[in-house]
Amino acid sequence: MSLLNKSAHTAFIKQTAASLGFSYCGIAKAQRLNDDAKKLEAWLNKGLHGNMQYMENHFDMRVDPTLLVPGAKSVITLMMNYFPSTTQKENTPKISKYAFGNDYHEVIRAKLKELLSLINAKIGEVNGRGFVDSAPVLERSWAQRSGLGWIGKNGNLISKQSGSFFFLATLICDLELEYDSPFAKDYCGSCTKCIDNCPTDAILPDKVIDGSKCISYFTIELKDAFIDESMKGKFNNWMFGCDVCQDVCPWNRFSKPTNETGFTPIPEILNLSKKEWEEMSEETFKQVFKNSPLKRTKFAGIQRNLKFIQSP
């Protein structure tokens, strides 16, 4: 492929991504992530993934994009802001901001599909697959490699311009493109606000997260009927997920409300009181939250979480 084609293809992809509502599009060369493989292996060996057995699956695929897309040459990282313009009412059971609107998997997957379709229409047949938190892809590592930002002490990808309230999606394809420079600096400095404020001490040194202690793990990932009693009194009214480490991060002063209508908050999430959540029927839950990330925990999980955060 000529340099001119490579440059034109790269420009087209970035412009198209912007027109679809992505606030960042960066590209890295598809190759095995050897350093990440070592870190992931050490993390799994320490059991810091708790009951999230799926993290152990497809290890080689997680660190090698060519196993997901044969002949892969480029990993395109896309970012979509989800920061809401409104907050929940005081004293309502707290829900992570990413879950205020419609399920991000559905919203972003449709855009990835359209992006790949437009690439095929403009450039010719390209073998590619889009991923949004649904396959063994190390999105944050690829985001850092494509120049988006750095991985903070809380394990989140942080952008100097936008903070960290955004989703990451990945498009792996066999098209050779111009590659962005990796983001080389770490702007966390000596700040330890996320570590100091984590209610369950889940943030360890050296950007290691103990997933088995995270409130998001307990309220979303854990499928057990009961939550460990040792966590009693530490959830600070978080019913689904937790945003503490992001809320206290100084870089999130740059967060701006999203323009994506799919992430418009569901009114019930902003307004329902504890009593209304408790009295809700399963039928109502399924109807109101049929397009919401809350359906992942299911009605029984929400009721379990409610009981846990309200009992002494």
From TrEMBL:
Mind telling me which PROSITE patterns this protein's record contains? 4FE4S_FER_1, 4FE4S_FER_2
Protein origin, superkingdom: Bacteria
Residues the record lists as binding cob(II)alamin: 62, 133, 154, 157, 168, 216, 242-243
Specify which residues bind [4Fe-4S] cluster 2 according to the UniProt entry for this protein.
Answer: 198, 214, 242, 245
User: Needs which cofactor?
Assistant: cob(II)alamin; [4Fe-4S] cluster
What is the protein's major site of localization? Answer: cytoplasm
Tell me the cofactor note: Binds 2 [4Fe-4S] clusters per monomer.
Keyword annotations of the record: 4Fe-4S, Cobalamin, Cobalt, Cytoplasm, Iron, Iron-sulfur, Metal-binding, Oxidoreductase, Queuosine biosynthesis, tRNA processing
Q: What EC class is this?
A: oxidoreductase
UniProt xrefs under Pfam families: Fer4_16 (PF13484), QueG_DUF1730 (PF08331)
**A GO BP annotation:** tRNA queuosine(34) biosynthetic process
Domain named 4Fe-4S ferredoxin-type is located at 179-208
The UniProt annotation places [4Fe-4S] cluster 1 binding at 188, 191, 194, 249
Name the pathway.
Answer: tRNA modification; tRNA-queuosine biosynthesis
Q: What EC number(s) does its UniProt record assign?
A: 1.17.99.6
Name the InterPro entries on file.
Answer: 4Fe4S_Fe-S-bd, 4Fe4S_Fe_S_CS, QueG, QueG_DUF1730
Q: Does the keyword Iron apply?
A: yes
Alphabetized GO MF terms:
4 iron, 4 sulfur cluster binding; cobalamin binding; epoxyqueuosine reductase activity; metal ion binding
UniProt-annotated catalytic positions: 133 (proton donor)
Q: What does this protein do?
A: Catalyzes the conversion of epoxyqueuosine (oQ) to queuosine (Q), which is a hypermodified base found in the wobble positions of tRNA(Asp), tRNA(Asn), tRNA(His) and tRNA(Tyr).
Could you describe the subunit structure of this protein?
Monomer.
Q: Give the family this protein belongs to, as stated in its UniProt record.
A: Belongs to the QueG family.
Q: Which HAMAP family match?
A: QueG
The name this protein carries in UniProt is Epoxyqueuosine reductase
Gene behind this chain? queG
